[in-house]
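Notes from the 1:1 (GR / supervisor)

We went over the backlog. Supervisor wanted to see one worked example end to end before approving the batch request, so GR pasted a single chain during the call. The sequence is below; no edits were made to it. Supervisor asked that the structure be written out right there so they could see what the output format looks like.
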Amino acid sequence: MTQTQQPPTKPPLADAPALIEHAFPVAKLSAESYKERKAGSGQRLTGIGKWWGRKPLVLVRASILGALLPATDDPQKDNEVFERLMGVDEFGLYERRTRQALSMAEFAAMTPEEQLKGAILAEAYEGPTDEDSWKLINGHLGTNARTLQEVVEQLGIMRFGEKPKVGDVFSGGGSIPFEAARLGCDTYASDLNPVAALLTWSNQALLCATPEDKERIDAAQKWVYEEVDRQITEWGIEHDEQGRRADAYLWCSEVLDPETGYMVPLAATWIVSKKHRVVAELVPDTSRKRYDIRIVTGASDAQLENAKRGTVVDQHLIPPPTDENPHPHPTRISNLRDRHDGGRGLRQWSGSDVLPRSDDFYQERLYCVRWVTTEESVVKGKVKTSRLRNYEGVSEADIKRENKVLKILQEKFLDWQSKGFIPSTELTGISSKNGNPNQTRGWSQWHQLFTPRQLLTNGLFSAVVQQSQAPRELLVLTSKIVETNAKMCGWNNHPTADKPTNVFTGQSISPMYNFSVRGLKLLSPTRLPVSELHSSAVDVELKDARLVTVPRDLWITDPPYADAVDYDEISQLFLSWYDKRIPQHFSGWYSDAKRVLALKGKGTIFNEAMIEVYSNLTRLMPDSGVQVVMFTHQDAAVWADLGMTMWASGLRVSAAWTVATETTDGINGGANFVQGTVLLVLRKRGAVETLFDDDVLSLMEREVSQQLKDMQLLEGAGLRWSDADLQLATYAAALRVITSHDIDGIDPRHELLKVRAKGEKSPVHRLIEQASQVASRELMPRGLDPSLWRDLGAHERFYLKGLETEQRGEHRSGVYQELSKGFAANNWRDLLGDERANHVRLQTATEMGNRSVHNGPLAGTLLRHVLMATQITAREGDPAKGVAWLQGEVQNFGMQQTRAVKLLEHLGKQALPHWAEDAAAARLLRGALMNAGV
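Structure output shown during the call:
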């Protein structure tokens, strides 16, 4: 080094811990994430296109700010500043209020739930606007900012020596890069999947457009719809002779019933509209061996009741009765479809087929058309326009229009396929789990998932978009049209609205027996949002995450870890519609889904690929860099695998948080699904020491204990933790110890890639379970005697801790499941009094009755006998009988009497309404037991 050269100055926060490594207001962020999820179509990115499992924008914003803000020796002020920047404190909620006339005093008198309900989404909050807030923020951080973008840039310079560079190599629907760019970060995004990359690019192009681009895109989109409307009207394929226009066409499949010889239309229900009392009635035509389908409007109660039962029940064909066969037998449709006796089985369609052939097993039949007329009336001097919708059966004129559609499509078919306006690729690689139309319908090409009318309408949109002034920006419009207009779109006869459904009501592309086709009037609302949000640019690449070469200070990723969504498979539906156009508009991009390279969330190959990905990201990160990995799984084995992946990739865990992000409580009252997203915060490992097993366990116990104490101290700063938060935090504490050291005898890469026998656990999995058990000793219910807690069994601990969880208003299944793992209470479900989603609770003493005294999860325990004695006291109104039970059933009761009194004291404090009678009985029994002789 010459005399004039100076060593580079290390940024002041380069070695400082980040706020997200010490505190994170998960309760508030959970509420905000839930609010954003519940906004449905009001979520900002959903209007751009369909993707599965997008993370809430508010969670991404919190992760970035949490990784930049320092953790100082004043945690309360740290949290106050963070919440002020996020707009999740009372000041921010007031600025986010939708009722602008509300005074601060009126606002302060509202409950936190009311304040949040009346606020705009947190992701739409642009930051504080008042002088006092910025004085608080800048004073604590040493910044000089007046906007979120300015504070982010200044913190980036203080931590990394530059404006923060953020990257995501699993961009998916684009939440992470979109929000990073809005915060002013230098943002990089990549994905292996072309559909994901296009969505990520489109988010910025459409929602963060310049004023000039917005004007151009808006005008182009308006022109597209006008041009499509003009062409469809000119073709005369949606209007009838009276000038009415159809907006919906209802179709059904038909199959030959070998027993009756009739062609039977298939539908799970023949109710068309509950609101307008419209049904379809099947009338047998003996001469043609078919059923005429008669549409009845203003149906009677009897007709509605009869129409509820369709011709398909549990995948069985149930033909309507006829005079020749008044009691037809049900037949499993798959047995008919797969028959090999020379009958009418499934045929593989050829590449040119757009309709079934006359001898195909499945036929397709139009049976109802909804016509719309517009009427104007004058109400109180104002002209009011109303739409009248009429459901009608299919006429000869309707059939002629369908034939005309087919003729026009055939004229354009090859030309449109060559230009990529309609699909031209083979239908391959779809698993049975995702519907596999090839196996169930014989369709061999992607275009066969659409009727001729759908191909013509959707293809017309594609062709017109290409001619517009914004062909790149409007490319994703094709996928929005396609998702609403395919054979996988059902018909919703909801009492308040009759309308088609979309393809992806679930996570599959399963064909339907009866489906709907949208006319242009129902496709017109399917428009792309365009806005001028402030944002930095995003560099989007279509690339394998293992091959990325762009350095970043902060990597935030949501990998397909233990994920049930087969993105590479089901996104092919969209890709088939613009596979030829993507390379035209994006230099260097490909149009292959790269399914062979796609990471699947399980198995040795996946684990090895994950190590390659995160080893690459570690190399592309400075020593002061941070990574945040998001995943939605709470199983200790998954944590162990993920921990070993990061360990083998040169990373160590510095913190982990769980934020509730999912709104799915279960399907039709079924089981609860995973509701939390785990944020794993990681740093480079650097130089580490080697520990032996005993050292690891000792250090892990101290770390877990300290973790819980730190989190409980932070409750004074306004943070609220659930027991599940505390339990999962112990997993993170264990991983901090494990990944920050080398452990004698454990090679993480070897352990991760090892093929294990069923039930065999990795060494890291066992360590995490031990940490969880350490935590279970620490998580003693408040007010319980420590000496009593120490001697309780697994299910006794689970039950008493579960009661405290109920007291805190927690009724999610996942929370109780986590407690059961921590306490090793494997039969915890047997103790539940209610298993409904978001209503989970434990049985009371009375609800247990005399069941499971000798053979349940609490069998033979002192707690079970105390609960039984409480139930007897409540039932008989006589505590003496409860005392008699204890004296007669509990072995060595003299030595157990004091412990029984302590348990009754605790049960007597239960303040839940459904515990009122039993709690009173417990208090009565406690008094009697204290006065009883042994």
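Supervisor's comment: Residues 663-674 have pLDDT under 50 and may be disordered.
Batch request approved.
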